[in-house]
Predict the structure.
Amino acid sequence: MIYIKSAQEIEMIRRSGRLASLTLDYVGSIIKVGQTTKELDKLTHDFIVGHKATPATLGYKGFPGSCCVSINEEVVHAIPGPRVIQEGDIVKVDVTTILDGFFGDTARTFLMEPVSSQARHLVETTRKSMYLAIQTVRHGSRVGDIGAAIQGCVEKEGFSVVQNFVGHGVGIKFHELPNIPHYGKAGTGFRLKNGMVFTIEPMINAGDWRVKILADNWTAVTQDGQLSAQFEHTLAVTPEGCEILTLS
Ligand code: MF3
Ligand code: CO
Ligand code: CO
């Protein structure tokens, strides 16, 4: 069952989402070459806790980080650790906050300049695909419209959509229904309804879409070792469109 949120619940998710977005603004201001992902995680942890919130990932199914920090060929869910951020890297940081019991989930890809033109193009295309998908969302539109928008945008550039991970309902719990694939056919799938809250979080690969999971049982990497980018927002469906709840 897809839980429909009340206006009051959406306000609480908006507050949490705003903090998650503010956390990524903070990450953008302190992330630097030479830093380990563990150091970045500690700063992120202290920022979230300093705002009277909890990092949702910490202890989630045993995940040991306050955020996911996935570099280059790492697609998602990389555990913060000794890997050092290098010039030319693209670094995906995914933050989920719990504020007064409500969840906000958002991710961005940071460019450690100077980066290759391919890396920049991949990241910009990924960002664009997410916003094109967001523009399809309104009461009565279909879930397939989201995936089709993303797929159309990125495949035109020769990139591919990761299929193993999907967007998800969020707000009261970390992962709720519905699942939101980032690929699909316009005009197909269930209809979105006013008050649904979910993420759109396309993971886009420069090469093949397939991923594998490392021995740590968390880190997803591209099978072909090529780059991957991601952006994520939490959205609420409205009669006219949708509201992005993870804005700072
Ligand atoms: N924030 C991720 C998402 O967008 C989930 C991370 S779960 C973790 O759904 F355990 F890997 F942190
Ligand atoms: Co998510
Ligand atoms: Co996330």
About this structure: Residues 57, 60, 63, 68, 77, 94, 96, 105, 199, 201, 218, 232 surround MF3 (ligand 1) (CB under 6 Å). Residues 7-30 form the longest helix (24 residues). The CA atoms of residues 36 and 84 lie 4 Å apart.
